Amino acid sequence: MKRIVLLLPFLLLFFGTHAALTSLRDSRPPEVRLGFFPPAPVVKALSADQYQFISQLITLKCLFYFGTLVDVRKQMPDWLRLQRALYTASRLDPYNMDAYYFAQAILPWDAGKPQEAIDLLEYGFAHRTWDWYLPFFLSFDYAFFMKDYNKAGEFLTKAAELNPRAAWFATLAARYYYEGGKTALALAYLRELIPTTRSEAIKKQLLIRAEALERIFQLEEAIADFSKRFHRAPKDLQELVDVGILDHLPEDPYGGTFYLDKQGKVRTTSKLAFGKGSRGGHKN
Amino acid sequence: MEAIRTENLSKIYRQGLRQQKVLAVNDLNLTVSEGEIFGFLGPNGAGKSTTIKILCDLIRPTGGKATIKGRDVRQPEARRPMGYLPENPSYYAFLSGWELLEFHGTIHGVSKSQIRERGMALLEMLDMTEAAHRPLRTYSKGMIQRLGIATSLIHDPLVIIFDEPMSGLDPVGRKLVKDLMLHLRAQGKTIFFSTHILHDVEIICDRIGIITRGELKFSGDLTDVISDSFSSYEVVFRNPEPHQVQSLQQEKFSLRTYEDRVELEVDKEKLSEFLETCVKIGLEPYTIDPKRFELEDFFMGFISE
Amino acid sequence: MKDGAAVPRTLSAFITVAIKGGIRDRVISAILVVGLLLLLTTPVVAVFSMRQVLALASSYSLSIISLVGLLLTLSMAISLVARDLEQRSIYTVCSLPISRSSYLLGKFLGFAILILLAVAILGCFSAGALAVLERIYPPERPFAWGGFFLGLWFQYWIFLIVGAITVLFSTVATSNFLPLALSVGIYFGSYSTEAVRYYLQSGGGEDKLSPAVKIFGKLVYWILPNFSAFDLKTEIVYGLALSGKTVLLTQLYGFAYLGIVLVLAMIAFSRREFL
């Protein structure tokens, strides 16, 4: 009985400090949260035979970090640190598909680091030689971001050898290349990915991106329609509404605004990523 | 005031998945007076150790209470005047014998100089002086037992509780411990000890208690149980000839025949008559012993009930 | 009365025995020596870094201290109560005229002092190595020595809490495997409760998980200690500033958690029977 009384002050202090500490830690700058990972060879040496597990832990930590930051706070993650962490994860366990998958889902798009994603994926494909996803991702990155259609074709052939689904994608891709429709290509790529994505945070990002691309696609079709009718390009997007091709201008789910660049391509101030539109403003 | 007293003490264990009740001690009423050596007897599993552990607050009674020098054993203070040696004791093996004495002495509040003085004397008495500065892990079982006894006495306790103090000791060690116990009684200490070696009890105890299946079957003076008087002799012959055996039977002696010997009982008064018969048939007795009523017979009487 | 001196006397007797036990335990000395040898390799490893030799060196040596310290903690904590129970030395110690709580507290204090010594030895050793490296490769920002020692201090508190948890489990367990396994599990779990909480708050957790899982996650966050709060490696490695409020709250939180675990252990141990 005496001891239960002794428990009380500790319990009071505990509840007080636990709540206060929680709110204090929630308000920390997010970059502190991903933590610091020593260079890959050091981590590998320290993790003994647990390198696979550590690699997965690092990947998971990246996922939690990304999920919290982008999903809940709509803030920009520290892309460089994320990229380095994923790099470390891949060097620890070259077969860790989660690291590549996550890298492909965020690095080329949100982070604007397609070359870094390609480097990681090529490293992964050197190990996971059976996995059609890696050449599939590579071909997309080469085509969409690097505009290197030779490389893209090369990797698509490899993907098709591994999985007939990729072959189907190849025909689709060929048509889009022919028609010069990058948006449609990206859309097809995303539709291939979304059903197999298990991480909810990433899935949500992919869905938003698909939605944005669909709207761009819608705008591009409208522009094509406009050119057919008036034999010239529209001055701006508003003209599409003015002539009655569109009811209203679609909204960018990333919070930016769609506009036409000098080449007559549909662009958005958000650059298809959260945070950029609001922070970078309309300086384009 | 009694040194140790239990009132309606009982302990029920719950065992196994189905929490089956096991009655280890049942309604035990025991008193041990000051200055006596009390032998607590019983077969294995009778409840001796459970009772002793309740006295040391290592096990809590399900019912009843126990006191040492009038203090409830649930209070740590009750153990201040008490010295306890568990059955097959175990101590911190990394300490030396001397360090263990210091540890126990310090916790009992014995001053450094007194620890040194008493410790030396105890080690001397138990023939452990040479091993005192070796770590306990190098000790044999008997040495641990002897050191344990020394440790339990470092604070000069008034009430000494020993659980099987003779186990693991060689004959020399047993002699040392018996002498020590008699020495302690001479100093007016109370000793309560459990054992199943009846011979030890016969030599040193003032009073005994017999416990079987958790119940106290007997408690009283040893002199009430065994006496010096006897009424018959036990005679043993070795390898008698068949005709000699026949002659004995004709004299109406009831014989117990074994492979190489024959035993018979002769009334005290009839011994000379019997010896004459032996001379007549040319048979020499191997041994002739007075037959006493021994503790063992008394004890077995309770066990077989 | 005599009683006034009884408690400090008992505690000091236990501390003396604990220190003797720790020093004479070959396993513990071996772990410590391995730790020191590993710390010797800090400069070799640090050279791997291109731009932040000292950052890598400090993170490497802190990792070694946390790993070696955990091993020391577990092997010492299990010898506190569980080994007494297993080797039956509990009979001779608990039959002394002391309460069960004094026994537990005395044992734990001995452990706390031993671990403090071990962390101090490891910490001084690695501080020496870092000081040498700081001379050879001067960092852009001065190395945060205050943060380094504060980090060691909180690392020590993690060991204290893990040790207390091991003791708590030992007071109810009958073998010494279970408390060991549970403590290891809790140690690792306690580093991820915060991440799990963030995940549950994030979109991924919000939509998909069942309410039961979410409640379980919250419960775990409250019950397990939040070791992420004690982990200042990032702050140390990059010399980030720590607010006094954070330090104070973390310290109080650790103190409260340790107190709760120890009092619970005392309650459980007082009821324990030694059959």
Defining key terms:
heterotrimer; A: mainly alpha; 2 strands; 68% helix; 2% strand; flat; disordered C terminus; B: alpha/beta; Rossmann fold; Alpha-Beta Plaits; six-stranded mixed β-sheet; 29% strand
Offer a concise description of the structure.
Chain A is mostly helical. Chain A has helices spanning 2-26, 31-34, 40-46, 51-72, 79-92, 97-106, 114-127, 133-146, 149-162, 164-179, 182-193, 200-230, 238-242, 276-280; strands at 258-260, 266-268.
What does this 3D model show about the protein?
The complex is a heterotrimer of chains A (284), B (305) and C (275). Chain A is mostly helical. Chain A has helices at 2-26, 31-34, 40-46, 51-72, 79-92, 97-106, 114-127, 133-146, 149-162, 164-179, 182-193, 200-230, 238-242, 276-280, and strands at residues 258-260, 266-268. Chain A contains 14 helices and two strands; from the N terminus they run H-H-H-H-H-H-H-H-H-H-H-H-H-E-E-H. In chain A, strands 1-2 form a two-stranded antiparallel ribbon. The longest helix of chain A has 31 residues, at 200-230. Chain A is flat, with a radius of gyration of 23 Å. Chain A starts with a helix and ends with a helix. Chain B is α/β, with parallel strands linked by helices. Among the domains of chain B are: 4-81 and 158-225, 3-Layer(aba) Sandwich (Rossmann fold), CATH 3.40.50.300; 232-297, Alpha-Beta Plaits (2-Layer Sandwich). In chain B, helix 5 links the parallel strand 7 and strand 8 (190-195). Chain C has 275 residues and is mainly α. Chain C has one domain. In chain C, 81% of the residues lie in helices and 0% in strands. Classes of the chains: A mainly alpha (284), B alpha/beta (305), C mainly alpha (275). The interface between A and C is large, with 38 and 46 residues.
Helices and strands in order, then pairings?
The complex is a heterotrimer of chains A (284), B (305) and C (275).
Chain A: H1 2-26, H2 31-34, H3 40-46, H4 51-72, H5 79-92, H6 97-106, H7 114-127, H8 133-146, H9 149-162, H10 164-179, H11 182-193, H12 200-230, H13 238-242, E1 258-260, E2 266-268, H14 276-280
Chain B: E1 4-15, E2 20-32, E3 37-41, H1 48-55, E4 63-68, E5 71-72, E6 82-85, H2 97-107, H3 112-125, H4 141-152, E7 159-163, H5 171-186, E8 190-195, H6 198-204, E9 207-212, E10 215-221, H7 222-225, E11 232-238, H8 242-250, E12 255-257, E13 261-267, H9 271-281, E14 287-291, H10 295-303
Parallel strand pairs in B: 3-8, 3-9, 6-7, 7-8
Antiparallel strand pairs in B: 1-2, 1-4, 4-5, 9-10, 11-13, 11-14, 12-13
Chain C: H1 3-24, H2 26-40, H3 42-46, H4 53-80, H5 82-86, H6 90-94, H7 100-136, H8 145-172, H9 177-201, H10 203-208, H11 211-223, H12 233-237, H13 244-271
